Amino acid sequence: MPLLEPDPQALRPTAPLPAPAGDRVPDALAGGTPAGLRDDLTALLGPAKVLSKVSDLVRYASDASPYRFVPQVVVIAETVADVSAVFAYAHRKGRQVVLRAGGTSLNGQAQGEDILVDVRRHWAGITVEGERAERARIRPGTTVARANATLARHGRVLGPDPASAIAATIGGVVANNASGMTAGTTRNSYRTLASLTVVLPSGTVVDTAAPDADRRLAEREPALCAGLSALKAEIEADPALVARVRAKYEIKNTNGYRLDAFLDGGTPVEILRGLMVGSEGTFGFVAETVFDTLPLHRLVSAALLFFPSLREAAAAVPRFTGAGALAVELMDGNTLRASAAVPGVPADWAEIPKETAALLVEFRAPDEAALAAAEKTAGELLTGLPLTTPTGSATNSFTRDSATVAGYWKARKAFVTAIGSARPPGTTLLTEDFAVPPSRLAEACEAMLALQATHGFDAAVAGHAAHGNLHFLLAFDPADRRDLDRYAAFMADFCALTVDRFDGSLKAEHATGRNVAPFLELEWGPQATELMWRTKQLLDPQGILAPRVVLDRDPMAHLRGLKTIPRIELVADPCIECGFCEPTCPSTDLTTTPRQRIVLRRELMRQPEASPVSAELLDSYGYDAVDTCAGDSTCKLACPVGIDTGALMKDFRHRRHSPREERTAALLAARFKQVEASARLAVGAAERISDKLLGTLTDTARKAVRPDLVPQWLPEIPGAATRRMPPTSRVGATAVYYPACVNRIFGEPAGHRGPTLPEALVAVAERAGRPVWIPDDVAGTCCATIWHSKGYQEGNVLMANRIVEAAWGWTGGGKRPLVVDASSCTLGIAHEVVPYLTEQNRELHAGLTVVDSVVWAAELLPELTVLRTVESAVLHPTCSMRHLGDEEQLRAVAEACADEVVVPDDAGCCAFAGDRGMLHRELTESATAREAAEVTARRYSTHVSANRMCEVGLEHATGRPYHSVLLDLERATRP
Questions:
Q1: Are 582 and 594 in contact (CB under 8 A)?
Q2: 368 and 479 co-located in one domain
Q3: Where would a tag sit more exposed on the chain, N or C end, judged by fewer CB atoms within 10 A?
Q4: 492 in any annotated domain
Q5: Torsion angle, CA of 943/403/631/167, rounded to 10 degrees?
Q6: pLDDT for the residue numbered 717
Q7: Which DSSP symbol is given to 749?
Q8: Of 513, 359, 358, 500, residue with least CA distance to 432
Q9: pLDDT of residue 753
């Protein structure tokens, strides 16, 4: 192949329509962060903690909200000292700081126009405390889902449960007092946060749990202590104000600062603890939290109940809440119809009448007797309800089936993304939530739908019916003045309706944010609002933290900074930048995330062709977005509407190939039998050369050519596989065994004693009475993933068709299953080859049964006798197995071989991706860092997975030997 750098211009987008430029990055930022600011912060913190390229600024300019503000610089804070140093710098220089964690904020709380501080990357971790894990000490960059994964092992759970739990971090949840489906007013952060450690704008660090916290705070911040005490006394001296504050928090309310903190806290530190909840990063940085955890009731029974109208659905809510239902969720007809686009949701939901509404009702119980009693009560409640059956998939009955219940919740949680992905092209999405007294839920739903329709918006509403908390969406084009005026008129009417008609909360669980800040006084009145301004002045007298996020006297502030959404490639255009994809992405802590890849792409669409900003973005995009994408497509699994950013990056790799590179790749595919033999010989020769010398040679070659073409040698790379496969017979075989090319080239880990992987699988199948046959002509075939992942179109098409034709012959026209011994190859043959097949071969493929070897082994377990086990095993599920849904079978096989099986809470894609871990070693090292920390924290008897190159990546990350779980199964069942 030609040894040339790819042309960045190959990635230049071609806009199908003129892209809006109203919020594009100006040419003045083409060089990135202004030199003075960059140099100051670099001297203060070190170059590794300061991101200053224009691409860095752009990718941090968007969050899940409809707002977009480009920061001047991004700081990656590692320690409390870093945060304090930035605060001190801001004071000295008169600058402003915004803290950003998961970026799932729906109203711009995680965006700033000056210094943006990332407090996610280095701030993860959870420690359980107490004999029964009654408390959890959690760092702010930890996602809710990750924290709950650890707590689940102890039968505990956090109170807050936002729908964005997969990506929302604890710091953001506390800062916004985010709640969710079940938290209500009793299980949210304000009620379950035992203590926190906060860095105040002055740099003072306060641990509210310290026995002498008040004394220390009085010594360091005497004016603050006096001011908090004075405000407390002022509020308590006004009975009418006290009554108003108490009344405002009888329903969910996150609008403005928690004035009840002055009533609930007895000392300045206690008041401070309460004020920090819902303060949206305007009072300080929450460096650590300690939560009171709640019992995790694992037994669940749920039903999705369909009603002819919203009013009839709302009328049924008190029945279920009164019976003890932990969650009662409402979805109107438009929400149900839009959810049909979510994978796993019945397609016939698209035909549900618009006037239909549904309640998702869930009971949870600690034991069988309690759940049975709840189900009996629930069944009685169904009698007499005006239920309807709008589709064939509507059952209106309670179920314990976990897959069915998970499907209900997937549809409910996808409210924002499902409707957002269906928005008109080029429009941005605004999500709002509000609360009314639960008794007025139906009235509020109808009023909100009518108001949306009056202003010409598609009407949809959903929410936490048990708590009177509703959500709605608006799609509009901020570049169109008429659309902007329509949105502004709607917001004025919505706020007046909520306050005047329902005395409700303009924000129930998403915190104030930029969209509602101008309407704060409308809800709270001048007296309470002025108290909030005084509190902000007391805690942050110079106003360095998150200006205009909670308090803003500009009545038009919510119209400022709205982002345009230029059209991009079809596969990614539905993205609403929610960020759900980010925690699962292997490159999140190295370069860019799927959301950021899309954000950068949209900025390229905003830029004119010859702009200096565009040129710099293209220069960065190749490595930051394309080269360091593992192509694992786990982002697709996390995305509620299945956007596959990995597929987009593979397409970009294809675009960068020259015709000559494509021809060369196709030639290698055509002659793959010789390539395979040569690779095996090369690996065998490498075994006789020192790792140090091989590393030097490959490093030199990478510098002379380019890193994305020449793999880097790793000591963990195994030796060559034996050329001979174990003898098998076609006669009597119950399945065809296809050894993947990676297992035909590479052998077992260094130091391995015992059978090879093919020998082990053949032996296990024989013991189970289910013999397999290995065809003689597997050499030269491949699942095509090599070409697919690198974007080589011609080679991919050639190999995809070759393997399907060969498999059709081997299996006797699909009469026997094809068992594949590498999970990525199973995925490739079973699914990824299909778009590249000829019409005739698609018909052949439809007749094949492709089974992963681990799934095959799990099916054999009842026929096997386990004679020995090891004490413990740590298990790495591959991303391919996540796509295939085979993780449970992997665990089942491991559990047959070990007394204890542990899947690390931070297990994720290893990013080795065939050879990408050798092309960009830093990608795998970053992707596996947290999982490796868990694995190396204790000793395990064995370390297992289901894909040879993933095992190499994990071995490189942990220093522990990984191998296929099938080797352990063979040993466990060996006579």
A1: yes
A2: yes
A3: C
A4: yes
A5: -90
A6: 77
A7: P
A8: 513
A9: 84
For residue 889, what are the domain limits?
Answer: 860-973
Residue 958's φ and ψ, nearest 5 degrees, are -105, -20
With CA atoms as reference, report the closest residue to 879 among 829, 927, 836, 938.
927
Residues 340 and 465 in one domain: yes
Q: Which CATH number characterizes residue 893's domain?
A: 3.40.50
Tokens 């004394």 — which residue? 215
Name which of 147, 140, 141 is nearest 197 in CA terms: 140
Residues of the chain with pLDDT under 50: 1-3
Assign residue 485 the CATH number of its domain. 3.40.462.40
Same domain, 868 and 827: no
Which helix (H) or strand (E) element contains residue 299? Answer: strand 299-307
Considering only CA atoms, which of 181, 646, 200, 575 is closest in space to residue 408? 181
Question: Is residue 721 located within the same domain as residue 775?
Answer: yes
How far, in whole angstroms, is CA 730 from its chain's centroid? 46
Q: Is residue 840 part of a domain?
A: yes
Domain boundary among 798, 833, 852: 852
612 contact partners, CB below 8 Å, separation of at least 6: 27, 30
Q: In this structure, are residues 345 and 411 in contact, taking their beta carbons and an 8 Å threshold?
A: yes
3-state secondary structure 439-482: HHHHHHHHHHHHHHHHCCCCCCEEEEHHHCEEEEEEEECCCCHH
Q: How wide is the angle at C-alpha 41 spanned by C-alphas 37 and 42, nearest 5°?
A: 110
- Whether 902 and 872 have beta carbons less than 8 Å apart is answered as yes
Q: Are the CB atoms for 471 and 463 separated by under 8 Å?
A: yes
> Do the bridges between strand 735-738 and strand 469-476 make them parallel or antiparallel, or are there none, so unpaired?
unpaired
pLDDT of 724: 86
Rounded-to-integer distance, Cα 280 and Cα 299, Å: 35
3-state secondary structure of 433: strand
Q: How far apart are CA 558 and CA 207, in angstroms?
A: 35
Query: Is 688 part of any domain?
Result: yes
Taking the CA atoms of 803, 807, 813 and 819 in sequence, report the sign of the dihedral they define.
Answer: negative
pLDDT of residue 1: 32
Give the pairing of strands 461-464 and 469-476: antiparallel
| DSSP E strand stretches across 794-884 | 818-820, 850-852, 870-875
The structural domain count of the chain equals 4
Helices (H), 582-624: 594-606, 612-621
For the beta sheet containing 942-945, the strands, ordered from the edge strand earlier in sequence to the opposite edge, are: 898-902, 870-875, 942-945, 962-964
350: helix, coil or strand? helix
CA 587 from centroid of its chain's CA atoms:
12
* 3 state DSSP class of 239: helix
| CA–CA–CA angle 917, 921, 923 (5° rounding) | 80
Q: Which of 559, 466, 470 is nearest to 509 (CA)?
A: 470
Cα dihedral 925, 927, 932, 935 sign? negative
Q: Give 384's strand partners.
A: none
Question: In 3D, which of 172, 179, 132 has the Cα closest to residue 151?
Answer: 132
CA distance 62 to 112: 10
CA dihedral 952, 953, 957, 963 (to 10 degrees): -40
d(CA 57, CA 24): 12
Name the domain boundary from 805, 835, 852: 852
Residue 711 region by backbone torsions, left for phi larger than 0, else alpha for psi between -120 and 50, else beta: beta
* pLDDT value of position 692: 64
Look at residue 805 and tell me if it is in a domain. yes
pLDDT of residue 23: 86
For residue 786, the surrounding DSSP H or E stretch is helix 785-790
Identify which of 462, 343, 475 has the alpha carbon closest to the alpha carbon of residue 407.
343
Please check whether residues 465 and 589 belong to one and the same domain.
no
Q: Are 733 and 765 in contact (CB under 8 A)?
A: no
Q: Judge if 481 and 627 occupy the same domain.
A: no
Instruction: Tell me, yes or no, whether 717 and 833 share the same domain.
Output: yes
Neighbouring C-beta atoms of residue 366, cutoff 10 Å: 13
